[in-house]
Design goal:
Elements lengths: L6 E5 L5 E2 L15 E5 L4 H4 L25 E2 L4 H7 L3 E2 L3 E6 L5 H12 L5 E5 L4 H11 L6 E5 L3 H11 L3 E5 L16 H18 L2 E6 L12 H5 L2 E7 L5 E9 L7 E7 L2 E4 L3 H5 L10 E8 L2 E13 L7 E4 L3 H15 L6 E7 L11 H12 L8 E3 L2 E2 L5 E2 L4 H10 L4 E5 L12 E5 L2 H10 L1
Parallel strand pairs: 6-10, 6-11, 7-8, 7-9, 9-10, 17-18, 19-22, 22-23
Antiparallel strand pairs: 1-2, 1-3, 4-5, 11-12, 12-13, 13-14, 15-16, 16-18, 20-21
Family: Belongs to the RecA family. RadA subfamily.
GO molecular function: ATP binding; ATP-dependent DNA damage sensor activity; damaged DNA binding; hydrolase activity; zinc ion binding
GO cellular component, one term: cytosol
Length: about 450
Amino acid sequence: MAKKQKSAFVCTECGADYAGWSGQCNQCGEWNTIKEVKLGSGKAAARDNSGYAGARSEVRLLSEVNLAQAERISTGLAEFDRVLGGGIVTGSVVLIGGAPGAGKSTILLQAIAHIAERLPVLYVSGEESLQQIAERAQRLGLKTAGIKMLAETSVQQICQVLDEEQPKVVIIDSIQVMYTADSDSAPGSVSQVRESASYLTQYAKRSGVSFFMVGHVTKDQSLAGPMTLSHIVDAQVVLSSTDDSRFRVLRADKNRFGSVGELGFFAMESSGLKEVKNPSAMFLSRAEKPSPGSVVTVLWEGTRPLLVEIQALVTESQYGNPRRLAVGLDQNRLAMLLAVLSRHGGIFTGNDEIYANVVGGIKVSETSTDLAIMVGVVSSLRDRIIPYDSVFFGEVGLNGEIRPVANGHARLNEAAKHGFKRAIIPKSNKPKEPVKNLQIHAVSNIQEALAVLNDL
């Protein structure tokens, strides 16, 4: 009797798995995207029972595990190395995503051209022709003598070529077009992407070859494919553009060998992606004429400080229900800060519409911007200009207290380096020694912060 083929129900937008069919995906909210996919004949699972990490090993004591530092390979782009945690780890698998035209293929081609001068590499293209890639490399002015190319979409054939060529770094462009003969579903389906990524990851762990996999993104700018793809790879980075289309931001959403949330900044030019050595200056191109509601704060992104401008606008509501809109900020946190400002600062904004925006397209996830947001709201409400040489940071609690933030001294040094003369910070972040050319106002609650604001 023939064995019944197993199947599963998977959302084609986000990759969420379900036991049966449903009209709407609970994860991404899309309708009619849950499809039945065949899980293959079982040969994929039988080919190697070692899992993603490579060959099986004996049970050992944790204290006996070798703690030798993993070897890293430089990409030739310091910002790229920073996001990866210091370079490419031998045998690692990195998934890089981004919208069409973001520059994924460009940055990888620049990186592999630099690596090819020292180590054997292979660029596997499943979407573009080799002629198209060669024309791009020529346009970017790259040295292509050491770059080996392969146009193939079968992962089994790719691994056979890898056994023959023995490269150290491989680029798969893209993982969505790869397929494995062990799965009966069509190329590009959820099961094919999962099996192909699993196959290549196992090869990477066994052989010590480092892989870069290019991934497409969905309309909500998240990486397409099954959610298990994120669990398989060692690092997941996303290349996106800012409000100014000339600049690109590379963010690490997952990294087993470095800091999560690390940012790398690039400028898109005719000769390719160029590193931005001073990203704070990129986000501080402020208007010549000062205006109310404009405040500068210092974020901590990954392993370095970053100066950004936050704008707030308070205007009289024309309708019965005032709007609260935050771009680049958490909308719920904005509502909370307005409540704290009303309760402990005596400033009521319930009848006004309030808009807050982080200039440059940066997404703020930390709480160190609380004080800057509140100061921006007060500045716009009172139509009072904040001096351009002032910087604010600090977390605001529900009782109106100003809480300290991490890496306060490094944030102050970054502000002083860019010419700021005054800093309003939490009292617990006040340095023991003065910072050169920077006047520090340490505050412990909202009332003290508003008092300092009145004296500026």
